[in-house]
Amino acid sequence: MNEQYKHPLEAKKSWDNHVKKINERMLLEGLNDDNQTQEDSHQDSFDSSWYIGRFLKRKSKKSHKDKKIKDKESKKELRTEEKNKKKRDKELEDLLEDSGIDVHTMHGMMIDAGSSGSRLHVYEFQPRILRGRKETELAVSGKKLSYPGTVSRWTDRLRPGIAQLASYSDDDIVPAMTEYLRPLLEFAETVLSTKKEHWGEFPIYLKATAGMRTLDKYNRLRVINACREVLYNTTVNSFKFETEQARVISGEEEAIYGWTATNFVLGTLIQSSEGSGAVINPTLTHGSIEIGGASAQIAFYQNNEDIMANLFKLQIGQGKHWNVYAHSYLYFGIDEAYNRLGALLATGQSSSSSSSVASSVYNPCLPGGSQISFQSDIYFFEGHETRLSVAGQDKSYSTVLKNDHSTGDYQQCSAIANSLVNKRYNTWCDFAHHGSCGFNGVYQPPIPEQQTGTFGEFLAFSNYFDVLNFMNVAENKTNIAQLQNATRFLCSMSHKDLVTFNAGRIDENDALLMCFRAAFIFELLVDGYGFKLEHNITATDVVSGQKVGWALGSMLYEINTLPWTYLPKHDDEDMEYVVQNHKVFSVFLFGSFLFLLIALFWSVYNWKKIHRERQGYSKVNSIY
Fold first, then answer.
1. DSSP string, 67-114
2. Which of 164, 250, 357, 461 could lock onto 160 through a cystine, CB 3.0 to 4.6 A?
């Protein structure tokens, strides 16, 4: 999202860091005055965009009144947050004045509850109304669909992800979720302020992805039920909501929705979907690859429809259905892959799963002369990821990842990244499916051979775009070999080189992780999915003004499941239909009348003939 439209919580990296910054903010502004109670501070200190901080402050038991902040960097970050907050307030003012919403459209909201944060998108689409016979026929035959549209101004986001709220007790989780979702809901109300009387007609969906899939079932249900309770509360949520509209979606759904969005914005989905039955031999489709924070997705259409597993049957409205290969790899997202990298470096050499962790370890993926703190609850034991529990709680640890060398080490980094792809677990899949496997033991048909203008093209979005864009190779099509060369260049930098290369484009800590992210993406594409060095991918986040992502594909699917409203209307087409049918009916009526008239005449003639014969009369042929 454009920096101008960032939510004030956007800069937060974790829930704990967010709590810390809230406390520091309260100190800087003198919120803990000796004569004020915590509740008084809650009422007077924060405006509408600091709900979460207000709730956290009520729950905090630690006193801060005598503490002084000496960290200049923290103060700088707080000033940045305040600047972002002012920008957001200005954005809301602009939206309230003119959001650009069409007067005659319907709307739907999608909350993309991801692993690192939540995004709310406001979409608009034409009313689901059928006027007259022709539109009804088109809808029934799968040739009339609803299309969602949006602009970047109608999107708001915040951090962290909702999975972080699992740490709250049963008594506190709903109030915490209320404060978490409230800014997003109020943002939607602002965008749609001119249609307040219709808010209750606009559906809102909350779909959580891999961050929630990493939770155990108990906590997953606690969090999603808290979401449902908040969205059912009409004092908080003014939009239309039903239970099934908030849930954790499967990885396969996330993959297929990404594929749907890809082909929708590229114009390769709708035309081939018209009609009934299955799509056969479409003129063009693109595959989709996405890598989020916690999972990685791949989806593509197989022209021969030879898919032995992970087949998703997609149907938009009453149109044809697509048989698409779709799969999601949990813990292969960019953040969880890094989490596993740090765990491997910190604990992978231990001879026992309970061994202590060194205070610092070498990370060849960092630029030379740099270091970064690392915390995790993942351990490597005998080459496998595991967790240790103490008193029913996962045991975590902290260490420092560092590189004391002059530069990073591409060869070592790529080797470690390759090991994290888990290609070694394909033994059974290779046997059962004759080598048609992706990685981590998962069946996958071979990547389609790339044919210009037909099949084999792939669109890469989300973190693919972020990483390739950082390396300046995201314009147009990117050759896989080009990606490798750019990764080798990036991973051979010193810290000073990286700072110069970054030039302030992204956060410094994020820049430190870019070598690993690039190496992991390359290994995922080549050793994981089976792309060849000569293959191309197109990395982007926007196509034809539309943000590419699974949320768009999901909204396209959802709005086409909404019921139609039929409004009889004698428009020109219907009147033509009536006139044509009237002519046909007139001809039929005239023909029927003529037939009856002839039949009547024939009946009268026969009756007279029979009557004469009965009277003894006969026809005289001749008097001679």
1. -----HHHHHHHHHHHHHHHHHHHHHHHHHH-----TT-EEEEEEEE-
2. 164
- Per-chain mean pLDDT for the chain: 83
pLDDT in tens, 490-513: 999 999 999 999 999 999 999 999
End-to-end CA distance of the chain: 115
Q: Is the pLDDT reported for residue 441 higher than 90?
A: yes
For residue 304, what pLDDT is reported?
A: 79
Task: Tell me if 163 sits within 8 A of 214, measured CB to CB.
Answer: yes
As given in the structure block, the two tokens for residue 96 are 């309230």
Helix (H, G, I), strand (E, B) or coil at 303: coil
* DSSP string across 200-219: GGSBEEEEE-HHHHTS-HHH
Give, for 265, the enclosing helix (H) or strand (E).
helix 251-265
Query: Using CA of residue 581, residue 584, residue 588, residue 590, what is the dihedral sign?
Result: positive
Give the pair of three-digit tokens for residue 577. 């239909």
Q: What digits encode the pLDDT tens for the residues 338-363?
A: 999 999 999 987 655 556 789 999 99
Q: Which amino acid is at 547?
A: K
> Cβ neighbours of residue 121 under 8 Å, at least 6 residues apart?
109, 110, 112, 150, 154, 155, 547, 551, 552, 555
Nearest to 185 by CA among 240, 128, 243: 240
| HEC profile of 147-195 | CCECCHHHEEEECCCHHHHHHCCCCCHHHHHHHHHHHHHHHHHHHCHHH
> What predicted TM-score, i.e. pTM, was given to this entire model?
0.79
Q: Where are the domains of the chain?
A: 1-98
- Which of 550, 532, 530, 533 shows the shortest CA–CA distance to 541? 550
Helix 480-490 vs helix 514-523: crossing angle, to nearest 10 = 150
In this structure, the dihedral spanned by the alpha carbons of residues 507, 512, 516 and 517, taken in order and rounded to 10 degrees, is 10
